[in-house]
Amino acid sequence: MTGATTKPKRTRTTRKAGPNARKSSQRADRRGDCSPHISSIAIEFLETLTIPEGPLAGQPLRLADYQKNFVRGALADEIMVGILSIGRGNAKTALASGLALGSAMGKWDRQPNREIVLAARNRDQAATAFKFVVGFISRLPEADQELFKIRYGQRLEAEFSGNDGGLIRVVPADGKSILGGAPTLAILDERAAWEREKGDALENAILSGLGKRGGRALIISTSAPDDANTFSRWIDEPPPGAYVQEHRPPPGLPADDLESLLIANPGAREGIGASPEWLVGQARRAIARGGSALSSFRNLNRNERVSTEDRSMLVTVDEWMAAEVATDALPPRAGPCVLGVDLGGSRSMSAASFYWPESGRLEALGTFPAVPSLADRGASDGVSGRYLEMQERGELSVMGDNTVPPGPWLAQIVRHLDGAPVTAIVGDRFRYSEFVEAIDKAGLSRVPFIQRGFGWKDGSEDVERFRRALFDGEIRVAPSLLLRSAFADAIVLVDPAQNCKLAKGRSLGRIDAAAATVLAVAEGMRRKAAPLRKARASWV
């Protein structure tokens, strides 16, 4: 834990203000701490410890910049909950364990009988943090070691008898085991991995107990697999009095991109955890294996919100970018065009993809309703200003108020073709009536509409035809941020028979353009593979 590190890509702090500030000050006085100096005392204490294990075992602990930033933020005045999201192996558990030890010893908390909770999904996982605590204790001066009593067995506890007493105890994710407690500090380790119901029950019990003694909570974890996870909600919607520090790279980058790897693993340059070379090598091995191995690497090592359960990427970023060519190198709009359409529902994106099977040219456009604005929508979807950038590039437009009107939108989409013939329109069969109305309003009633489903039957065939076309070099597209973003969020669910269907990798992900592209390319490849009909001979 030494030296300086890269600045985290996304670091947010939410502090409570206004009338509650006086209450927070009174609470600080009861703890016996002086808010401006708590973090300094904590950092100074941590750097008196000795690293208990690993390649640097026996050396003095030296905090990296990202670790000091978290200590300062989480222990700041009026902050009750500190949230840290970072890649695996960046010493987040060791850091939290050191803070637990300092709090138990009363280094900055003067309350008598201090109680520190180490909570995790199960006892074995919580034992990891407890092991760090015991390791730190074993390297303290002998006079301090004699003040500790370590208990193993059914209960894992470290009791400190000096300075009015302190107790560190392990609690698994069972809400009943913490009811009635009054912790002064709680560490919720690997929060994203907790079972939903039991985990939420334990968290609620801990947070309610913290209020009795003005305690703090540290919630630490690698990224959750989706936006619906409770840990994700802590990051995306932090309540007042919360400090958020998230080390997550922008989505859609290759798994072995070094700069983004170092965003998720800021300790790599400081000798904390894996080295940059190991991370790149592991990323390339995961890319070669694909599937769940790649998803797991992105989730755990790149700290991305990618699920690892019975799903995999539709195509990797590298596979998709192999189809991109310079604008002046695009093949012509030769032959008839297949139009794939994904009609957006209320407040969502509508997308269209244009595919010319004869030449392999692909184009895509997306449209959002005007409310909320693209800037606000980008903030709520966790992509910052990406939608505005797409609009500047001409890939994304705005139409309608709260919904995109299907008829006028489809007419606008067809004008993009500039007179090029459309041989078929492909869309979701469950939106058939809406498609018929939109096609009539757009003046395309003579163009056949092909109904396709997104379930296991049609979806599996379309996904495989699309993948085959991509891998065989049958798709050529200009660099498109809209498509890159869509394919970065597009995954496939796989059933036991290895059938797959398209799905979102993030609940807030926008895969509409990817869905439209799969429909258009799959239909184009079916038409390209169909045998040519010979003219019947006429006998006179």
UniProtKB/TrEMBL annotation:
- The segments labelled Disordered in the record are 1-34
Domain Terminase large subunit-like endonuclease intervals = 300-523
Name the InterPro entries on file: P-loop_NTPase (IPR027417), TerL_ATPase (IPR046461), TerL_nuclease (IPR046462), Terminase_largesu-like (IPR005021)
Terminase large subunit-like ATPase domain segment(s) = 82-223
Q: What is this protein called?
A: Terminase
Family annotation (Pfam families): TerL_ATPase, TerL_nuclease
